[in-house]
Amino acid sequence: MFKIIFVVFLVIAFVPPVRRFLFWLIVGKQMVNEQKKANNANRPAVKKEGEIHVDYVPKDTKGKETGGQYIDYEEVD
Q1: Mean pLDDT, to the nearest integer, of 52-67?
Q2: Alpha carbon separation from 49 to 6, 29, 46, 54 (Å, rounded)
């Protein structure tokens, strides 16, 4: 009995097609499809040479002070 369990464990552990099939049975085909969709969505679109695409345009910051005042200083020895 122990030999049979050991052989089944070895087949599952070291034969990739068996692992993939068991994963598909346990997790289901839906999760695999969702992963494929996510992988395809993360790929950047192929752009022609010289084409410009802006992903983010910041809001207009009129009237806002983004920096402080510039103060001259002298080194003191």
Answers
A1: 72
A2: 57, 38, 10, 15
The set of residues, in sequence order, having a beta carbon less than 8 Å from that of 32 and lying 6+ positions away, is 24
What pLDDT digit, counting tens, does each position of 14-48 carry?
888 877 887 788 887 788 788 888 888 777 666 77
Where in the chain are the domains?
2-42
CB-CB contact of 12 with 19 (8 Å) = yes
In this structure, the dihedral spanned by the alpha carbons of residues 42, 37, 17 and 7, taken in order and rounded to 10 degrees, is 90
- Whether residue 64 is predicted with pLDDT greater than 80 in this model: the reply is no
